[in-house]
Amino acid sequence: MLRFLLRRLLIAIPTMFIVVTLAFFMMRAAPGSPFVNERHLSPEVEANVMAKYGMDRPLVVQYANYVGGVLHGDLGPSLKYKDKTVLRIISEGFPNSLLIGGMAMGIAVILGVSLGVIGALRQNGPADYTAMGVAVLGVCIPTFVTAPMLVLLFASNLGVLPTGGWPTATQPFSSAWRYFVLPVVVLSLPQIAIISRLTRAGMIEVLRSNYVRTARAKGLPEHSIVLRHALRGAILPLVSYLGPATAGVITGSLVVERIFSLPGIGKAFVASALMRDYTVVMGVVILYAGLILFLNLVADVLYAALDPRVRLS
Amino acid sequence: MKAWRTWALAGAALGGLLAAGCQPGASRAACDAGKLCYERGNVSDPLTLDPAKSTTIGEQHILGDMFTPLVQYNAASEPVPGIATSWDTSADGLTWTFHLRESKWSDGAPLTSADFLFSLRRLMDPKLASEYAYLLYFIVNAEAINGGKMPLTALGVEAPDPRTLVIHLTHPIPYLLRVATHSTMYPVPKHIIDKYGEKWTDPNRWVSNGAYIIKSWTLGDRIHAVRNPNFYDAKSVCIDEVNFHPGSDAIAVERSVRRGELDSANDIQSNRISYLRQPDQIPDYVHVGTWLGTTFIGFNPAIPAFKDVRVRQALTMAIDRDFITQKLMRGGQKPAYTFVPPGVASFGQPKPPHWAGWSLERRQAEARRLLTEAGYTKDRPLKFELKMRNTNDPQLIYPAVQADWRAVGAKASLFPEESQIAYSDYSARNFQAADIAWIADYNDPMTFLYLMKSTTGPQNYSDYKNPAYDALMDKADHEVDLVKRGQYLVEAEHMAMEDATVSPLYFYVSKNLVSPKLTGWKDSLSDWHLTRYMCFAGHKAAEPFD
Amino acid sequence: MESAVLKGRSLWDDARRRLLRNRAAVTSMVVLALLVVVAVVGPYLAPFPFDQINKNDVWMKPLTGGHLLGSDALGRDLLARLMIGLRVSLAVGVVATFVSLVIGVIWGAAAGYIGGRADEIMMRVVDILYSLPFIFFVILLMVTFGRNFILMFLAIGAVEWLTMARIVRGQTLSLKQREFIEAARAAGLSRRAIVARHIVPNLLGPVVVYVTLTIPGVILAESFLSFLGLGVQEPMTSLGSLISKGAQDMELAPWLLIFPSIVMVVTLMAFNFIGDGLRDAIDPKDR
Q: Where are the domains of chain C?
């Protein structure tokens, strides 16, 4: 186990290094600069700005400085939001993204697994078709179609949920939850679809397997077979889906945060990339690369814990 | 059977949740009992809260509530006394003396003329790298100091006593009072900056001298501000707290205003205005008025075709501005045949180019003739690329411009970019034709017409070099008589328009959505709306600080 | 070549029979064929060019002014734009998938066949790339190199090849053990010939399935980029940018959202059903 973790850590280091390097040089290759606006700076003033952020030095030196900073946990100042550091921006936005994404994943797992199990147990029945219909629609309707339609229905027409926005820090959950409903629903729909398909397929396979047949032959009650034996095997593919699912939720959050104007880090990332806020872009990329690496690791450990045939080495 | 029961249960639960949410005003942000909270939509998050570094309109709306300069705008956007109660001008117009009232910073420290002196020197400090410092280059030695050629103390500003501030100018500036309302003239707290340096704008230790003070700022969420008890006119302030909510998607913001989540928004998607004005929509929310801005096309003279005045004229004539303003923008924007928008102060009656009154058919026929004369025919058409901002309005109008040009035999391809990147390309002359928007920094024709002076540099996007134009501008700069000055400026503009150095497309309008519950909102040319002048229907200033 | 064909025939016949019995898949194939014909031929037959501005036709409702599906804010015919948008989306889907196919098959087959140290390094590279937050890099690519059409194909293709490489490597490894490869090796065929003649043709099944499922993924990715303003640019269009524009004005001109959304959903569903059908038909597990 320890050796496994160490080895993963050893892979993580070059991965992060590649991430930082790619992000740094891609961002710098982009046309434009964070310091140019409609109002043109005089050459003297521009030189001052560049010097202030160390951008008057050769690119390689800047790169070395940046990597050095990152190793010390310093992601630098934001080049556009002049009063904020990158860490500050991340610490303001990331918890919100995490909250929405986490809730969406939680709901997606609960609903997705339930739908998948129902589908597998009542194969080709009306419940199965309904469940799979929902699943197909979830995959085929893009978030940016569902989101505005739900806003139109639940916020503008029915008036039961806000069109967007975020509760204040002191607001109790009893009133704050309204802000979360639509973003979480929109974000979880595609995941529910994928998870229910994975569960259904896994479940069908397991139900046909020898050990379930043995359990049936032993006369165990059906619910015990499903819950204790079959489900455990059926959610294995789900565990390995954890990594890609995270990536999916992150991608979705770029759209959802924008449509519902949520103060998340995904929206900040797109805006920063367009404004050439180099340091914020790199900071967010590093954050998410780390997150995905971490969740992949969690997935592997979980997989090993659930499947006795797999051993970590 | 079982499955159906599960579904029914789930449905009931969902229904219950929705019913629970179904309360009036359920989605308005939390506001403490007994307080008046103004939920204010704002086009963008501020890039900075430091007035000396501020560049965006979104910042101006926030900072205007937090700071009070010497001279400020009233509800109708006229310059009125702020921290200065009165002022005198010398006969030659070169020396302005401001007399300050007794007032305090929000932390109770006294606010004196030394703070203003410090603020102006800091603004010109090359190390601060203020993007807007150039606006005050008319102060003696300002340009040299900002360029690092003179010490800060050489600035032509004096504070002979704590209640007097003297500003020396290089030439008469008839619009000084209007510039004085700009954020570059805001006082910043020396005693706080001395202590915390560049980090003084942290909301946790915020100090300013306006009607409100900032309490917190979460990026992408809101800026939370409360009334400043030490504001000199605190008892006239009605609204207790104001939250600025950033939202660049005008349509999403529009939905929030309709729902009552926001009380006002300072942008509307232009082509929805006529829809919103329908009686069954929200006609009483829509505030559209003249605004001081122009959208125009610049031509890079490094492209041989654009050196030819006939080509520029042909392209300028061919555009159907009525289609753009009436069918595409639909918000009351005016077609532009000249450069300075209507409503700008101290300007004469503009003289449009000679062809402006012709019908579109006649103009397009003439354009075709001019292009042929310039050597561009069906077999050898004029081809060029137009670089444009990829925001909503340009995406809507340039395909139409492109079609008009195609009709007279010019083939333009469109190249959209982020606004910021487009402008950096324009400044570097990395374009052939460019889509440019210019909003007045202050209400005077100069803010538009200096763009075409040969000495202006990168912002003279078409690199217009006309000694006659420069001479007229200089003459205007040294003319104290406003009517005469206006005449020179009209002449200069007419010259540039006949040369078609740029193609104006349309003049802007200000577009606000304002809940009828919000009172005290006045539409104005500068589109400037301070929260301290506003209130809610049925309330009045609480006068808690007598 | 012959040996592979001879060996494969019965297997492919089986698969085809199973596929044709799958009603959803067959319907989807017919629908998809229609969509492709519309996308390829339609724009030539449309009464309006897709970028023609009709000054008197701004926001016409469907079936008015000669606009079957209505017109947009610039008076452009929605039907014509929809057909061009479909063409662009399908093209992005097919080309990007092809890019990922080529890279993935070469990489995966090489890794699987050469094996040993090379395999380990090559798959480690895939692992590392897998854990990059790819959407961020696609966004950065689009930002860095402008909204270039070709680049979008390449960028999305470059993201999708990883899964392809893994699938192909897995298949190659298991095929390598089979007798006919041994036989070919014994017959003195070179490595390259073995990969090209035996391994690649036998990979076809899983690869075809994966390709049909990748295309809709790519179409979605493109529309996602278009939504963020990073996709194709005006006056060119795609399903994604039609939808994102339509969503803005859905209260005023709902047809601008509804029709593109229907076409998008139908297209994606068709690909998904065909992919599922193919998998069921080819995958020996469900026999």
A: 13-43+67-286
